[in-house]
Amino acid sequence: MTRKKRGQRSANEGIQARDVKAEVIAVGRGAHAVKTDGHSGGSVTITLGAGATFTGDVVTAQRVERTLRVAQGVASPQLRRSLEELIGQTGKLLERLEPAERQNEVARSLETLVEEASKPTPDKRWYQLSSEGLIDAAKTVAALTEPVTSAVKAVLALLL
């Protein structure tokens, strides 16, 4: 341990730990989450890779984080890339949806679609219902309707 000499300033001097606490959580393959408390309202920011992030309430963020881990475990590189793209586009959509309950509903649809897509024999009823929910939600944010719809269709094309 090094001691501070009299009159020498600490690198952390002036930083107040009570303002914001943050914890970096490793997720894998370049993605990570940062959980913050304090003045930020308990939100979580998840970096989804390729410049995409999601910042939102803890419940929704945890769902997106679990979904990302499932997608990263998919054996097929093409399906994995398509799922990661879908998660990134849906993350952007989630940030623009209100209220938090709606965000969680859409995150649940994403989670179901990704979980079904990752199974050796996906249940068509579940992944189709989930994909319809994602597309319907995307229609509420004009700028994301096309990117989310395209990402959903890319995943569905690999499942059919």
In short:
It contains 5 helices and 4 strands; from the N terminus they run ββββααααα. It is an alpha+beta fold.
Termini, distance in Å?
61 Å
Radius of gyration: 19 Å
User: Topology as H/E string?
Assistant: EEEEHHHHH
Please identify the structural class as seen in this structure.
alpha+beta
Which percent range describes the beta-strand content?
A: 15-25%
Q: Helix segment count? A: 5
Task: Tell me the strand order in the biggest sheet.
Answer: 1-2-3-4
Shape: globular
- Arithmetic mean pLDDT: 79
Poorly predicted runs: 8-40
- What is the strand tally? 4
Structure report:
There is one protein chain. The chain contains five helices and four strands, in the order ββββααααα. It is α+β, with helices and mostly antiparallel strands and 160 residues long. 54% of the residues lie in helices and 18% in strands. Residues 8-40 have low confidence and may be disordered. It has helices spanning 58-72, 77-96, 100-118, 124-138, 142-159, and strands at 20-28, 31-38, 44-49, 52-56. β3 (44-49) and β4 (52-56) form a beta hairpin.
Task: Please render the helix and strand layout as text.
Elements: E1 20-28, E2 31-38, E3 44-49, E4 52-56, H1 58-72, H2 77-96, H3 100-118, H4 124-138, H5 142-159
Antiparallel strand pairs: 1-2, 2-3, 3-4
